[in-house]
Amino acid sequence: MSEAKLKSLLTRDAGGTPPGRIVRALSQKGTMSPREIAESTGLAKSTVSTALNELRRTGMVVDGVVENSRTSGVGRPSTTVSLNPEAGTCVGMLIGRDFMQLIVADVSHAVLGERTVELDPDFSAADAAQVGARLLAEAYEENNLSRDTLLGVGIALGNPVNPNDGRMLRAGGMPAWAGLDIRAMFEPVLEQTIIADNESNCSAVAEMMWGAAIGYQDFVMFTLDEGIGGAIVSRGHVITGIAGAAGEFGHMSIDPEGPLCRCGNRGCLEVYATTKEPLRVASQRYGRPIEAPELVAMALAGDVGCQRLIEDTATIAGRGLGLIGAAINPPLIVVGGGFAAAGDLLLTPLEESFNKHTLVKRADVGGAARTRFVVSRFVENDACMGAVGLVLRRFGC
């Protein structure tokens, strides 16, 4: 069992073999039962059993036991398998406006380490690459990990990333980086394969693999923070669009005569529905800087002013989501960002506004056909977790 052996099973050539298909499924989904593997890969149960025995002999997979069935909750304990944690590791990085976050995980999906550092304002991509290399080296040293096990590095960024050439587009949270080739900037410094994507797309990957969207093949990720981000997932894959700009919900124009947006258009949803204005008002009200976690905490504690700020923001955001609902009619909308921890204080007015402005109303359809709203599971590190997922899903079918 080795990192080289794992990579060989994850290649396109080996991916069609039963062991390769099983390894790729486990890389994407983590721990699975033989029945789940058969359903996911389309292989016969007998073929799965034979291939798993071969993978056990090589040390590529290890067994585990889940108490009772995941679906029924009764009966005999269910045997599960996962990739051997020693077979490989991967890294996720989130590069924010003034910070960098790094997570190290193994191929069984276990998080081994996490680090966050502040960055100087207006840092360059070259600076970020050097900081990333330092954090990566420190994380592997602190956790007694061999760099030889590293399969790749996923990077979550504030701008859309063109899937064709790896270049960042404009109208994101890092305008100075527009046009940069992320792979060319980071691969020589990190000495690893780089997979880069927009942070909202990464958040969607995290929610699909480990969070609120488990079991959903189709859903929308909606991130309400200092900016408005989003992602569209269809049939288990994030839709990037031809140039990587799909899901840029914040730059839908809801008022063509409205204020100028940083993207150059007028009246974009992001001009009206972010955390910036509520935090400015709260800070002015209390005479000191107020950040999103504190505003949410005060709202949950009963501060009616803070509750109203969240409600007003949700109402405007729901107007934009109504357009998305009319275009896509998704079964699930996962809401992340700085106000997500407010729970129903955010979701209730958001859903009411969505219902008002979208085509199909709640009263038109039964419960099973209504769009569900849920809060992101990973409020603090969703994009970075999703960057880890980029590596784990890299060889997915």
Structural description of this entry:
With 397 residues, the chain is α/β, with parallel strands linked by helices. The protein has 3 domains: 3-86, Arc Repressor Mutant, subunit A; 88-204 and 382-392, Nucleotidyltransferase, domain 5 (2-Layer Sandwich), CATH 3.30.420.40; 212-375, ATPase, nucleotide binding domain (Nucleotidyltransferase, domain 5), CATH 3.30.420. It has 14 helices and 12 strands. Strands 5-4-3-6-7 form a 5-stranded mixed β-sheet. It has a 5-stranded mixed β-sheet with strand order 10-9-8-11-12, covered by helices on one side. Strand 4 (99-106) and strand 5 (111-118) form a beta hairpin. Helix 1 (3-10) crosses helix 3 (18-29), helix 11 (292-300) packs across helix 12 (304-328) and helix 12 packs across helix 13.
